[in-house]
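Hey, sorry to bother you again with one of my protein questions. There's a protein on my desk that I can't quite get my head around. No rush at all, and the record is pasted right below.
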Amino acid sequence: MIAQLQNQPMTSQEYLEWEEQQPIKYEYVNGKVYAMTGGSLGHNSIALNLASALKNHLRGKGCKVFMADAKAGISEKGPFYYPDVMVTCDDRDLSARQIVYHPCLIIEVLSPGTANFDQGRKFRNYRRIDTLKEYVLIEAETMNVESYHLNDKGKWELTSYSTEEPTTNQTDQNVHFTSVNFQCLLSSIYQDVIFPESN
């Protein structure tokens, strides 16, 4: 949801102080800030569906679920992003007021303008978070979910869920986020989403 680049370079502290005074949110990467734009209604429904389901699943388990208004920090000097959904089970984050630094799960709902960034540079930065165990990318215009999970050998493994590639003649699939032992049907992630008509 990055819209436009602000030209003046800032330190991370200048960014944090400046952004508090702004009417919209900005992400911060390498001294530069990027205005955030609103997503589609489908984008919003997907994030809300997952955040609600994760919150119910994790209730009473010492974890917190956040949506798009919560900032994730790669380090105290940045970058700083606004994931669509984020889960932390780390005691250091449970009393945080401004920034989450120790998430175990980050979910991004892809928009056409941000998909390449979310899959590339943003994922490279997220991988610097030592508590991160899973990074999930969700397409908003087709039923497709890609989950990158950190395995026991410290390598990122990809599991894909898609109605375009059904398994054992099923049109729906059971999606599993191993970082928080969460399962749901692929269709439930996309509940209430209206897809664009294909030509």
Remarks:
- The chain has one domain: 39-189.
